[in-house]
Specification:
- The protein is of the alpha/beta class.
- The chain has a single domain, classed as Metal-dependent hydrolases (TIM Barrel, Alpha-Beta Barrel).
- The chain is built from 11 helices and 9 strands.
- The strands form 2 sheets. Strands 3-5-6-7-8-9 form a 6-stranded parallel beta sheet. Strands 1-2-4 form a 3-stranded parallel beta sheet, sandwiched between helices.
- Helix 1 packs across helix 2 and helix 9 packs across helix 10.
Length: 268
């Protein structure tokens, strides 16, 4: 499995605090069946926004430590980008990183946002060739209060990444119920750990995909798992066909109505 959102690099943000903790997270991830991790420290102005040189140094040191300890894990680099007006400029200048140097970028909306402003900045990113992946929409009150906004953003060409822990109920029942709605409506494109430590929000995807299989079926769960490889390799994510959520009675009524309409036109 591939984890595209993980705060495993030590000493850069509110994730792993030091190298032993980062190695413990990598060992947990490997035991869970994760083979690839995209290290995505926060790019959050005035909070966590280390210089890119420091990020690359931490990445290199962690990669070397993994090799020494022989933990089987392939590492890649990116950022968890908090959306601000300067985001596009930072992406173009290389101040913040896309996932593994491709077109996909993890974007985290501010805690409070205007839907119109969010749609506008995402449109600009897509127009410039980037492919925004909105992180953990299930944890935003704005999305929970207006679930149709997620539908609209997905229709516009943005991608949705939910947190593994949310699928398992670790962020409360409302977040889990929202994930279930997203799964049934085929609005989950990616699942990631968003891991921050070996104790809280620890790395792991396997149990989350078991939940997803119950809700969405094996075919959709496998596609979502494969989408992470597409992101890593900068390939297109194929959109899910819409799922027919009508009840059997509604489907029967629509079929009868359509047949009647065709007979009426034929009789005329």
């Amino acid at each position: 499995m591939i984890d595209i959102h993980n705060h495993i690099l030590p000493g850069l943000d509110d994730g792993a605090k030091d190298m032993p903790e980062a190695l413990a997270m990598a060992e947990m991830a490997a035991s869970d069946g994760i083979t690839h991790i995209v290290c995505t420290p926060h790019a959050f102005p005035d909070v966590y926004f280390p210089e890119l040189e420091r990020v690359r140094e931490a990445f290199g040191a962690f990669k070397a430590s993994l090799a020494e300890t022989r933990i089987p894990m392939d590492l890649f680099l990116g950022h968890d980008i908090h959306l601000v007006p300067e985001t596009l400029d930072w992406l173009k200048s290389g101040r913040v990183l896309t996932l593994n140097g491709g077109r996909y970028c993890l974007v985290e909306p501010p805690e409070f946002f205007s839907p119109a402003e969010l749609e506008s900045i995402l449109f600009v990113l897509r127009r410039e060739g980037y492919r925004p992946i909105i992180t953990h929409p299930e944890r935003y009150a704005a999305f929970l209060d207006a679930p149709g906004l997620v539908d609209r953003l997905a229709e516009q060409g943005n991608f949705m990444q939910v947190t593994a822990g949310a699928l398992r109920g670790r962020f409360g029942r409302p977040a889990q119920a929202f994930c279930r709605r997203m799964a049934r409506r085929r609005l989950i494109h990616l699942v990631a750990s968003d891991a921050h430590s070996p104790r809280r929000r620890h790395p792991g995807l396997r149990k989350a995909f078991l939940v997803l299989r119950e809700w969405a079926g094996d075919e959709d769960a496998n596609t979502i798992m494969e989408n992470a490889a597409a992101v890593l390799e900068d390939r297109d994510i194929a959109p899910f066909p819409p799922r027919d959520e009508r009840t059997w009675l509604q489907r029967l009524s629509d079929r009868l109505f359509n047949r009647g309409g065709r007979r009426g036109r034929g009789d005329g």
